[in-house]
Amino acid sequence: MKNIRVLYDKKFEMTSLVMPIVFESLRDCHPENASSEGLLEYYGVTKQPKKAVFIGKCATSLYSGFRKFYKNIPSFVYSVGEGKDCSTKTTIFKYGSHPLPSRKNVQCCKDLVKFLEKDKGDTLFFISGGTSSLLCLPEEGFTLKEISRIEKNLLLSGAPIKEINIVRMALSKLRGGGIAEIVKPFNFYAFIWCDVNGKDYKMVGSAPLGGFKLDLKNEAQKILSKYNININSPIAQKFVKKEKRGSKVIKLFDGESLINQISIRLKGREIKTKILKFKEGTTAEEVAKAILMSVKKTNGPMVFLGNGEFIVNVKKEGFGGRCSHLCLLVYRYLKEEKNWFFSAIATDGKDGNGGGGGFIHSKCSFEENEIEKHLANFSSGKLLKKYNLLYERSDSGNNLRDIFVLVVEKKSG
Q1: Could you give all domains of the chain from N- to C-terminal order, each with its CATH number?
Q2: pTM given for the model
Q3: What are phi and psi of 26, to 5 degrees?
Q4: Which end of the chain lies in a sparser environment, N or C, as judged by fewer CB atoms within 10 Å?
Q5: Would residue 349 be called left, alpha or beta, if left means φ above 0 and alpha means ψ between -120 and 50 degrees?
Q6: How far apart are CA 12 and CA 125, in angstroms?
Q7: pLDDT tens column, 35-77
């Protein structure tokens, strides 16, 4: 993200103070820092667990931090993408595809089930975003090919992540409380590195540990009908499985925590800051309009912060993602305003088919209709890359939803 530094001139004086604080907070709010020597005792785990499981985009980071203090607990680490097989006598490493499941994911799931069923006992779980695609063990009557089709259509439809996860739960033996069923009659203690906000943290990874009431069959069928997606077999799972008494699901950190920490640090530097909050299911277009209204109401200087995965109804798969698309929408609405800087960052370092996010500002100069053309083609990342406004794609080891930062500099001049 070094290319932002070219903007640190007199006209973007406040931005030069704000963005280093944002990146510093991102580094500090890293899953490797989630564990401490007294983590288990603090949350009431007095008996050493028999084993530990780490799943999702942050699996290896969470494992690395945990291992510093708890060295002898046999572990299963299952993350996305490609990685080195660092398996030892006590730890198994596996990697699977994301966001759509693959045959490799199915095999990894079978290996995970074997790990959980062997020498059963109290189990620790560290769950992070990306787990949904990894826990693909299809329910009876569903093939991997059909599940991939259904999930791809849901992702392209712009369905909110909560709706997607409900359908995912209904189609997998391991989601919707399926993992917790394997651990029974023993307890589990789960820690969530959260890529959803509010009270829905148990939904991360399509709720492999269950623990809430949901008419799964009925709700999943409603969602599939809403987006005109057909299925070849009836849904068998009726309800999310109940949480065993004595077990716990604990939220470690989420995107709201990250934004709050950035806000506290900015205010500590006497920088006026406001957090903009949006409901799940808000579209990127609605967010851009709300940002314009916020700018109209302020005389500056001011920093606006927000986080979420805002809906983009993708009709063409171009080079870009939610963050870069939001950047172009914000420019569309703010182009007549002066002295502003906007940045949208994918905290996992991967913004759809594009880079790792992007930035845009009032000094940008685009050719006629360039913005609208790339919005229509869903190729926002291509345009940002052309003007050196795209963050490099990377594996950050983190995943706390997308965040955005809008810096309104002094409005005069």
Answers
A1: 2-29+266-408 (3.40.1480.10), 34-253 (3.40.50.10180)
A2: 0.91
A3: -60, -40
A4: C
A5: left
A6: 44
A7: 998 999 999 998 889 999 999 999 999 999 999 999 889 999 9
